[in-house]
Specification:
The chain has 475 residues and is α/β, with parallel strands linked by helices. 31% of the residues lie in helices and 26% in strands. The strands form five sheets. Strands 1, 2, 3, 4, 5, 6 and 17 form a seven-stranded mixed beta sheet that branches. It has a five-stranded parallel beta sheet with strand order 8-15-9-10-11. A hairpin with a 4-residue loop joins β18 and β19.
Length: 475
């Protein structure tokens, strides 16, 4: 006989485990199913974000940044170290330990909130009286039922057509995070978040990195002025980025990988590297969900079709995160998850897609929220802009990193903040002030009149807000 729950969540990534925990907190009996395994075959909840995405990539970025600082910048502070070496296996082991801490933390939260966890693959079986039957294919096959189902199965890395990932020479984000030694030459296809972050990690460790991007402009989703500033910084660091390329044949052998491509001028080129990371986007993970068994609607890209409230075409079935429309961001999945759990409980969950921040954790970091200047121009919106460089920020000088700027965009008539864009040190933290301000419909003058600690990097947000109306406090 099937075990009965109020809510079953399929997937335990940021969308899944948050939905499960919040639903349990609201008084529902909840089951969460996830098949992710660690190296020992044990449960590893947390999805792509925890296992092969957000968390492990930040761990490697931190390690590689320490290494670069020790080799290139400690002397500026009067610290003598001599040549510093990197133990790559130990760096990877530290990353793995951090991932496991996060896995274990999620399992603890399940137990604390009385969420029943099933380790295996969840899939639809059929519609039953009062809900749906879900099969759990793990060590043993089980059947569970619930009236409310939340699908949070995430996404998978997209491979080049005809060039599957082998995770030895041709790597997805998974293989890119498990390299056992520093390659001499590394190629990346795709100059998006994953490409830039992974390229930054290995460049800092001494790898010659080349990034091939098909788009003609760098980071087209980012404000153009900010993207140009970031590109200048990456060029200066030695990260070679070629735009407007067309990828041809990719050959893998024991010697490495050879990529034939045409550059922006139409010239035939060949890139020979030890390893190739392919980061050309991700696809919704609905494989094995057996959506057809219950008539769950998918779109032409394989995403589950949902409305603004994350409801699918089936009563009582919801979907959140990478498996539905919108940006593939962990925090977007979390916000949708909380909202869905609250809607199931009869409350009024809310997600404001206009104030979802985005961050690229390179050095300099890139962060933004709201509309870009090019979007405002295209939409015919009258706006005012204000910028302030970190070069004029005392805290940035003390840190030894004055790269970049903060940019505010505000409505020309009401002064309401329409977008905030940053490139520079720690802007992943600074962007939250802009998100809060925009959620409360603040004006640029509101930010300009708030007292910011001195010296702090956040003073640059105040100065950029002041600059919107050509005011300044910087003497």
């Amino acid at each position: 006989m099937s075990k009965q729950f109020d809510v079953i969540v399929i997937g335990a990534g940021p969308g899944g485990y948050i939905a499960a925990i919040r639903a349990a907190q609201l008084g529902k009996t909840v089951a969460c199913i996830d098949e992710w395994k660690n190296a020992a075959g044990g449960a590893a909840p947390g999805g792509t974000c925890t296992n092969v995405g957000c968390i492990p990539s930040k761990a490697l970025l931190q390690s590689s940044e320490h290494f670069e600082h020790a080799n290139l910048h400690f002397a500026d502070h009067g610290i003598s170290t001599g040549k510093v070496d990197i133990d790559v296996p130990k760096m990877i082991a530290r990353k793995d330990a951090i991932v496991k801490q996060n896995n274990d933390g999620i399992l603890y939260l399940f137990k604390k909130n009385k969420v029943t966890f099933f380790h295996g693959r969840g899939s639809f079986v059929r519609t039953v009286e009062g809900g749906y039957e879900i099969k759990v294919a793990g060590k043993e096959e089980e059947s569970i039922t619930a009236a409310q189902i939340v699908v949070a199965t995430g996404s998978n890395a997209r491979a080049l057509p005809g060039v599957p990932f082998d995770e030895e020479n041709i790597l997805s984000n998974d293989g890119a995070l498990r390299l056992g030694k520093t390659p001499k030459k590394l190629g990346l296809i795709g100059a998006g978040v994953i490409g830039l972050e992974m390229g930054s990690v290995w460049r800092r460790l001494g790898t010659e990195v080349t990034v091939l991007e098909g788009m003609p402009t760098f980071l087209p989703v980012v404000d153009e002025q900010i993207a140009k500033e970031a590109k200048k910084a990456f060029d200066k660091q030695g990260l070679k980025i070629e735009m407007g390329v067309k990828i041809g044949e990719v050959k893998s052998s024991k010697k490495g990988v050879s990529v034939a491509y045409t550059n922006a001028k139409g010239e035939a080129q060949t890139l020979d590297v030890d390893k190739l990371i392919v980061s050309i986007g991700r696809t919704a993970n609905t494989i094995g969900l057996n959506a057809e068994a219950v008539g769950l609607q998918l779109d032409e890209r394989g995403c589950i079709v949902v409305d603004d409230d994350c409801k699918t075409n089936l009563p009582g079935v919801w979907a959140v995160g990478d498996v539905v429309r919108g940006p593939m961001l962990a925090h977007k999945a979390e916000e949708e998850a909380v909202a869905v759990a609250e809607r199931i409980a009869g409350q009024h969950g809310h997600v404001n897609f206009a104030t979802l921040p985005s961050v690229i954790y390179t050095s300099p970091e890139v962060a933004w929220v709201g509309r870009t200047e090019q979007q405002l121009k295209a939409d015919g919106v009258k706006y005012k802009a204000g910028t302030f460089p970190f070069l004029a920020n005392g805290r940035a000088r003390a840190l030894g990193d004055t790269t970049g700027m903060v940019k505010f965009l505000a409505d020309a008539e009401t002064d309401e903040i329409l977008g905030v864009h940053m490139v520079g040190p720690m802007v992943s933290e600074l962007i939250s002030e802009a998100v809060v301000a925009m959620e409360f419909k603040a004006s640029s003058e509101d930010i300009a009149r708030i007292c910011h600690a001195h010296p702090s990097l956040s003073e640059s947000t105040k100065e950029a807000a002041l600059a919107v109306d050509k005011r300044t406090l910087n003497f």
